[in-house]
Amino acid sequence: MAETRSSVSLTIDGKTVHVPPGTLLIEAAKQAGIEVPSFCYYPGLSLQGACRMCLVSIEKMPKMQTACTTVVTNGMVVRTDTDEVKNARKAMLEFVLTNHPLDCPVCDKGGECELQDMVFRYGAAETRFLEPKLHEEERKFSSLVYYDRPRCILCYRCIRVCDEGMDVNAYGIGFRGVHSEIIPNRDGRLECEECGACIDICPVGALTSGTYRYKTRPWELTYTGTICNHCGDGCKTTLSVRNNQIIRANNRDHSGVNGEFLCVKGRFGWDFVHHDQRLASPLIRQNASQHPATWEQALEMTAERLQAILTERGPNAVAVIGSNRTTNEESYLLQRFARAVLGTNHIDHHRTADFSSLVRALTEAGAADRYATMEDIFRASSILLIGNDPTHQHPLVAYQIRQAVRQHSASLYVINSAAIKLALRQAKLFLKVPPRREVDVIRVLAGGGEAPDLAEGGSQAITALRDRLRQETDTVIIFGDEIRGGGVAELVRWGLSLPGRTRFVALGDYANSRGAADMGLLPATLPGYQPLADAAARSRYESAWGASIPAEPGKDLRSILSAIDAGSLKALLVFGSNPLKTFRLDQSVLSKLSFLMVAELFPTETAAMADVVLPAASFAEKSGTVTNTCGQVQALKKTMRRAGTRSDFEIICALARLMGANWRYRSAEDVLREIIAHVPGYAVPLPSLLVGRAVATQPRGLPPLLEDSNLVFSSRDSLFTSGTVSRYSWALNSVDEAKRPYGHIF
Amino acid sequence: MPDYQSYAQGSPLEVKVISKRFGLPNSASIDVFLAHEGYQALVKALKMTPEEVINEVKNSGLRGRGGAGFNTGMKWSFVPRQSPKPKYVVCNADESEPATCKDRPLMEYDPHQLIEGIIIAGYAIGSHQGYIYIRGEYRYLMEILDRAIAEAYQRGYLGKNILGSGFDFDLATHTGAGAYECGEETALLNSLEGLRGYPRVKPPFPAVVGLYGCPTVVNNVETLSNVPAILLMGAEAYAKLGTPKNGGTRLFCLSGHINRPGVYELPMGFPLRRMIEEVGGGLRGGKKLKAVIPGGSSCPVLSADQIDVPMDFDSLAKIGSMLGSGGVVVIDEDTCMVKLAWRIMKFYAHESCGWCIPCREGTAWLQALLARFHSGGGLPQDPDTALDASYNMLGKTLCPLGDAAALPMISILKKFHHEFEEHLKLGKCPFEKNGTGAF
User: Fold this and answer.
1) Which residues contact A427 (CB under 8 A, 6 or more apart)?
2) From A134, which residue of chain B is nearest by alpha-carbon distance?
3) Contact at CB, A96 and B361, closer than 8 angstroms
């Protein structure tokens, strides 16, 4: 009996099962390997006992009970294999099929339909129902969500995932009895985040996707688990491909950092890959206009022009701008190419968060294990969110925060200049500050002192926040670009001084913003946050690469741009970046270059000015690894091919060879092995990556202090934007919600 | 407003306990109430301890008059008095069971009796707030109740420090919007909270987690109206009015093919045959009895040979039916039982909230099947299919509405199977003179 405190033992179909107290009978059965069918029960969502599929017999109970709402008790004797139970399951299926149209041959869900599977397994394939079925026309809730009432079995999963998972509350029930139906929030239309979780969670073909419906059958698709290429959260997604066309994205096996979560960009925003304006052939500028050329012509021209400028002006006249989206392997190769082949440290990228300062501050404090993962955010007992609007910029982070609050009452504290949704709906305490004053609050939190005008509620509010945080035992501090440079150091120092455990996350914009910093796409930092100024670090890479690295730190991105403007920098290579737009440059600046090469997916403003444009492969067309904003490395898997394109890996390798380097990489995996071997903090187990796990990294290093705080800024993408690529997504532009101003609360 | 006499002709066999003020001029006013023992039970109760009040009600054998017949004092004793949460008394005035019209005169002619009962219940369970949830169709009763509540506040029977006892109690009315389902106590609580009137998963029961997640007692109008009488006459005397474990009297609503339909207060256990023949004056036009619905449309139908039964909860349960809400429907020989089943099923299909599969789909299926069958389109397998579908609903739904639809259907299919056979043989309804007689 001593065990009863920690476990309850019961018998299901003669098997003895030990489960923790409070376990639901349906979960206990699952642990015993006994399937109890259900439609409405869904782990993590509220219970409702609506579908009655999980009725089981329990000894001493006069009626059958729903296993999904019954909490196990010691000595409970349960049977799921009696005729009574079997008949009940069959009866429920016969009932639900009375008005369910048997249009399985054309239904999107045919082949992966829970109702189909249940009927196959539990009977009721023959009906005694002879009356006319009720019919309703299909309805368009939005360009991405359609509703077919006759197919709906009213399990209400869609309503609950929208209420409890997304906190959007866009669905309700209309009418009554057999005429009940799911209704959207705006007079027959949805106004929501368009995340499509409702479609994903629908057990039947009632909610269908505007991009997938009636296009294919699920068994005609090939499925590849890869990583979404939009924001920095690194959601795992399964791309469903037929005939070299992506038709759908969902996280099919609910693995990875996101479980079943995907936002509108992850679920629908991949369609840019197939956009008509994708660059399909290299372009070479002849006279005033760009003309198609072969890959050989374009690459040779690039190598020749670079060689000429190097010979004439030396490596200081050449600079490289890297990408927030290319893989770790490509970013690593790009900086190796710049440093070891071109001989320049003028390499940088659009920094959307100050990862360097976080690594430096944690390393200085001897606390390089205090990086929080996506799961840590969910498990934390308290969360301090400074700046950023994760609901828009980091939908998975927002989801993790909401679930932490909902499922185990984590305390959320928000410091922000705007009344963001998390502050209004989930926060225990919200400190509203004037724009760009977040860092001043940290200073007051850390040092005390008076700052009556700093926050709404004055110093008292700040003191209250400090007192609350001092009570917490396990806090994750999440901050956006509002905190950078010295501010990060102050935040880390104060955070680590709190009595409880504190861990940190810096929020960077894009799929591999973190990886770009980790891989050293920075002018004075080598891969793994090793300072270029550190001769030992330099020599480690020199011996690994068999080449020398210039010791003098390179120019940062803004200095590169002003050097171009000043005429001292003559050649620029841009990979997956659009500085003209991001840095609001005048065209005249780039026209001062002697040579501009751009590797891109689309004809961007920067690409339009290039002497050579190289059509790059998208995330779906290549393999490699990316690192999310929490520092978790995951594998990108090649899903399809795109005629005419080459990956940045291939482009960089080809250029290096043409410029005389003796590189022998056969695939991105060879680069990954080099990264694992040489980049501090990246000794990740390759098998884990290959089976689709997320591997947390804990970088350690003392990169130089941030030279200019204007180098770090977020693009403030909304739920429906994602830099260049979202401009070429039909799905993201098709929804009315995309026209709402940034920060709109759905 | 209809006066009392117009729908209750009265019977010398009645034992008037809770209807004794019906028919007095201006009986809804507090002055008339006070002149006839009004609020005396409250005075008495406030001098007792809450436990004593609960025991008194327990010992009286009062059982829930809404239909389920659970011992009221027992229900009150389940409320965790030590809970730091507020506790609520909710009066279920969502009287919607077909053939039931007893709560209506109780609220119309004696609202203060109900209010007094609610206050005593509040005192017994340690509640300081009560609600009367009235069905949407009873809007005119809201005015009567609101007026009575205002009077009670004015005279100090509601509000702070009632009668100097230190006990505070507030009371308010709330209206439904016309849903049978909201008579189910947890759906009622949802509706009262402003949510859609869907039933909740039980357990937890409302006594522990009820309105706004707080301990709540939900009692029917008639149940609460009995409480003052119990305290005044004493549990023992009250219990003696009825049969063992079925204390007191009951308002029976006699309707159907009977000479003197109306609401009659009779002791629990009153014989059904005498109720029909002596109280109701026998069948209209000297017709023969075919069947009786003993307690509202959700009870299994009794055949003519089953009417020698005392009308109390246990006796009816013994013969496979229920006392239910006290709505007694007398059915004569000219009635088509298939059509009756169809009509009952039409009600349940219309009122099914749609939350759970068996009731939502089952009631609609049976309604469609019976409509087809009655109009001459029946197939030999239909009665068996209907019986099976009814059993597939029975005991498998989230709330009792599935049973309410299945039970009468099963009883008609079993006891009047020959009428289904006749429909099949003739290819039409043997009772319809002209056409199929849709509703």
Assistant:
1) A385, A412, A413, A414
2) B364
3) yes
Tokens at A116, concatenated: 């189909």
Q: How far is B228 from chain A (nearest CA, A)?
A: 36
Would you list which residues of chain B are within 8 Å, Cβ to Cβ, of chain A?
179, 196, 201, 349-358, 360-365, 368-369, 372, 379, 381, 385, 388-389, 392, 395-398
What does the pLDDT look like over B158-203, one tens digit per residue?
999 999 999 999 999 999 998 999 999 999 999 999 999 999 999 9
Task: Say whether A51 and B357 touch across the interface (CB within 8 A).
Answer: yes
Report the pLDDT value the prediction gives residue A1, as an integer from 0 to 100.
38
Domains and CATH numbers, chain A: 8-96 (3.10.20.740), 114-274 (3.30.70.20), 283-352+512-699 (3.40.50.740), 355-507 (3.40.228.10)
Asked if A223 reaches chain B (Cβ–Cβ under 8 Å), the answer is no
Q: Residue A173 and residue B381: Cβ atoms within 8 Å?
A: no
Distance CA B39, CA B117 (A): 9
Please check whether residue A69 touches B, CB under 8 A.
Answer: yes
User: What are the chain A neighbours of B397 within 8 Å (beta carbons)?
Assistant: 52
Closest Cβ–Cβ partner in B352, B369, B396 for A178: B352
Stretches where chain B sits below pLDDT 50 are 1, 436
Q: Report chain B's mean pLDDT, rounded to a whole number.
A: 95
Of B357, B385, B398, the CB nearest to A95: B357
Structure tokens at A426: 């989930």
**CA-to-CA separations, A509 to A37, A324, A334, A651, B291, in angstroms, rounded:** 41, 8, 20, 25, 75
What is the arithmetic mean of pLDDT over A152-174? 98
All domains in chain B, ordered by first residue: 18-240 (3.40.50.11540), 249-332 (3.10.20.600), 337-434 (1.20.1440.230)
Q: How confident is the model at residue A447 (pLDDT cuts 50, 70, 90)?
A: confident
In sequence order, what are the beta bridge partners of B175? Answer: B134
Separation CA A542–CA B438 (nearest Å): 93
